[in-house]
Amino acid sequence: MQKDRCFLAIDIPEEAKPGISRIIRPLKTEFGNVRWVKNENLHITVKFFGRLEAAAAEKLIAVISASVSNFGAFTFSLQGLGFFGRSEYPRVIWLGIGEGREKIEVLNGIIKESAAEYTDLRDEDNFSPHLTLGRCGKRAPGFSSALAGSAKTPVAFVDCKMLIFYSGKLTGEGPVYEKLAEIKL
Question: What pTM does this model have?
Answer without folding.
Answer: 0.90
